Amino acid sequence: MPHRIEVGMKTGLHDPAGDATRQRLAEDLGIRVDDVHVLDVYTINARLDDEELERVRAELFTDPIIHDSTANASLATGYDYVIEVGFRPGVTDNVGKSAAEGVADTLGRSLAPGEAVYKSTLYAIKGDVSAQDCERIARDALANELIERWVVKSRDDMKALDGKSLLDLPLVTQQSRPEVHRVDLEIPDDQLVQLSRDKMFALELHEMKAIQAYYRDPAVRAARTRAGLSAEPTDIELEILAQTWSEHCKHKIFNALIEYTDETGETRVIDSLFKTYVKAATDDVAQRVDWLVSVFHDNAGLIRFDDDHHFALKCETHNSPSALDPYGGAITGIVGVNRDILGAGMGCRCILNTDVFCFASPWFDGEVPPRLFHPRRVLRGVHRGVKDGGNQSGIPNVNGAIVFHERFLGKPLVFCGTGGIIPCTVTGKPSHEKGARPGDLIVMCGGRIGKDGIHGATFSSEELHEGSPATAVQIGDPITQKKMADFLLEARDLGLYTCITDNGAGGLSSSVGEMARTPGGADIHLEKAPLKYAGLAPWEIFLSEAQERMTVSVPPDKLEAFLALSRRRAVESTVLGEFNPSGKLQCFYNGELIGSLDMAFLHDGVPKMTLQAVWQAPARAPEVVVRDSDVVADLKAVLAMPNVCSKESFVRMYDHEVLAQSVLKQFQGPLHDGPGDAGVIRPVPGSDRGIAISCGICPKYSELDTYWMMACAADEAVRNLIAAGAELGLIAGLDNFCWPDPVQSEKTPDGAYKLAQLVRCCEALYDACTAYDIPLISGKDSMKNDYKIGEHKISIPPTVLFTAAAIIRDVTRVVSMDVKKPGDAVYVLGETRNELGGSEYLAMKGQRGGQVPTVDFERARKLYGALSSAIRSGLVASCHDCSDGGLGAALAESAFGGSLGLHVDLAGLGLDSNTAALFSESQSRFVATVEPAQTAAFESLFTGLPVRRIGEVRADGMFRVTGRDGLDASVPVDELRTAWKSPMQW
Amino acid sequence: MTEGQPRGRRKVQTVSVRAIVLTGFGINCDNETQSALKRAGAAAERIHLNDIIDDVSRLDAYHIFAVPGGFSFGDDIASGKILANRLRYKLGDALRKWIDDGKLMIAICNGFQVLVKMGILPLFDGEFARVTTLTHNDSGRFENRWVHLKTDPATRCVWLKGVEGLPLPVRHGEGKFVPQDDAVLRRLQADGQVVLRYVKPDGSPAAGVFPWNPNGAIDDIAGVCDPEGRILGLMPHPEAFVDRTNHPTWTRSALPDEGAGLQLFRNAVEYARTNLV
Fold it and tell me: Is this complex's ipTM strictly greater than 0.90?
């Protein structure tokens, strides 16, 4: 019989977990209870004698200072109901896994095969609630039924149970024999489409027909007969093709032929958006910068950081999984992109994370459609996942944003970025070059394979629908990954492998399939793969996206050393097969060939799509009439807008200083609460060279014009870097596209317009990057961000996250955003125009329309050059980017960031309305302060550029603004701080 | 070369003081702890726990043992607990000998949690015993923020010699120091084992008030040492303040180039050079 240990805080001690739960029930569900007591429950499914059980209870699970605990007896008292929540069978149970190690240490013996520890949580609730209330509490707040189970018991029920387990053991009891099936493709077209849908292939008819044609090819047939394979494809072959050809992996839309009709009715053909805009921009800029090392083809882009190190950067989205399980989706998102960095070049060490989230308002009060969660719950779960993933991996979070828009209700966007560093040479060879060689062994390291994450690649290539599979969700295990990463970096420096890549979307199918391109083929033996539990079909083993795994190619003469080191580092590594020059990817199971695909067909056989895009210029936006009203009230209201207000309570929960390299943190100024523009780190101890990271994201402009949405996002990222002290010419970019389905079809009748929006966006990306000399070193697209169940369809606003990274030549010259001294002059750099379209001000007033902000790249380029010189020369005391909330927000943030007053006059900005002057979100602007003694030198750098001195920093703690029509308004800076900080106290 | 090595700014004065920095199983502040010890003049090596367990005699060659911060075993069950358990069962005797030999230890954040949970601190009467703990912050959340610390002026802690007070970052979810009872607290206080307390920016007691006391620690306790003053455990991160640019307001205040946290490591290296080498 399994043993059950319950652990809780001693009576009378503060129970923070209980209090937090009680508060969450009130905030999120409106259910008020008197008390919640949270107990940790460990179910030990192992043979223990009484003495052993008592030893693990007392020594391992119980902290005698603060805990009460019981073994095989109920601990909770004085409650009305208990809810116990535990994982479903097969779901990653990190605590249980660690606890099993602790039990083994305590007993001095390993646990027997099949013995395990399972973690669950018991919530003892006191208050006037019913069993139905408790069911709702469990379903809507405490558990996610996709991955967890729960039971609700009353006090009387519990007495009857007498300390026995409430939940069954989460054992995977599947007894099905692993089999290989043949699939008949000689079926009518409509059945091919149905097959693709039923099997989650996410392939279009013309793609299914390309596969059908491959199997009809006499040469293929003959080869199959010779190899002893059926004429029909096997399930594993189709699964491999579907994964390799998925939108997620092949970026078919970005590589399609697009017939684009612009607003004049003229049509031209674009052969691949990727080649025409993204790669072309980088190729152009590459002629003017000399620090690109490896772009586009590896797991992450690599640039030269200094004479001895390269810097790698990558950003990924994990939107669909985060919609279904916010915590699991987000934590796998962040540890997943960490593996991209670990798999870049010969393996980089992760040194920074970024995170950008897009949600609907946490105060959304409409009805939440089926299968979706309330945005507040999504926010909580995603944030917790990213927090745990980053903190437990020891990678500092240095920059991010949370963006709100009503249409992210349909799918949240979760962007996770990671930067890494690697010596330029590893064991005497260039570290950015790698490749498996024929004869090298295929070795999988890290976690084991389960049914978790099967069909992730194809699932994210579809809209979220009724049949979206639960198995697409996984939970990350940062510690297993941390151990693996530490081990692999050691192995790297010992030269024990020739190539490395991560197991992400598509699992082994993707990693082995990709690595096999260099040697020309691979044989893999799937029965050798270590499994979490029995019962996986061979195709499931190959396709599983179970986390924390890397694939490396190990030369035979290094294998022993590699495996020995792996054992010493407590990392599981398994030889699964061998790379060869056969031209085929061949899968075996128990010695039998069960799948064979030509490498050429696998990688290059996917037919190119031809798509239609038709641009209609947005109807001229209605004029907005703004009447100057109460400036102070408006400013406070804008500062409190979700997109403007402080996110400090979320950011503080991220470790942003581990690795001890931080130079500019997220929050700045004497009270550490002014919002910084860019994160700056100094990654090599003893060197003054640094890296600055920022982001730009403006989905609010998409409905006005995606060209300007993209232009503004790129400009925002760049000016965030410039504000901190970066310079053009040393900035690299990453583009992450998240689009609603842009393929015209019955379910997407406006696909041609959405695709045209994408074309416009790519044009802006090209224009921005070439104007600012920013090579795009890596990027990603996620093209099916729609929700559709029944007639209910929600498409996200087209969104691009532009992440920018700058090499900082001397970190001791960077500038923070907080104003520094009374008497310093206040400048606005850049031109303020009446561009209130999409602004926070209009959103606050509930108005739409207005002019979308535009960017004059050439003028901005000159301004940025001058500002960089001024900062480098030490002339700038503070500098802050002007974005959401306009000049008003930027001035207020600079003032309370520095805990000083600010007096400014708007009249000189030349606008006919004070409101437009304060709240227009014109791009390419900054607020800078300069010591009086430096103003002449400062101004001389900006000759001919739109720079205006508008006031000064004061010691009086007042924010005073004067302007046209006799405006003279004042408010204590502390009140503005409060308005900005109070909305999202989480 | 290995990435992250200091590039020839400060010559290591001597290699005779040797420091071991524990790594593995989710420890994650090992690189910067090693870096700080190197800058302080020690020959510091990161060594995996399994390599020590396999050959405990290798400890004989070292003088300073650092248990860095991190998330050993994911903080599962409780922070530091599973690593504490493993050290107790696999390295208990070796660490006993280390202490008896009068060598130095520093345990930072997760490392502090480990030493407390295996009973090395506070080491009353030289015995390993669990009489204090570090538990969930009163706020119920992990937080990264800078705090002000004041050193007990009468301290005999080797690590804190000449350090009156300093600002450092805390980055933890389970940093609330709790003694078993009043007797334990009084004994810690009376014997000068409470060496670091959270204070307000003006140096006055934080008196349990957030955010000056970031976790609700009893008596504002941020760090304790053993009765001899050679083993220091603390929640804040001295290895994360070694350059002035680490400080959150360095852009608005004149600070020395070297961060205040480095002095702790310098003190240890100096003591080891004088007494242990």
Answer: yes
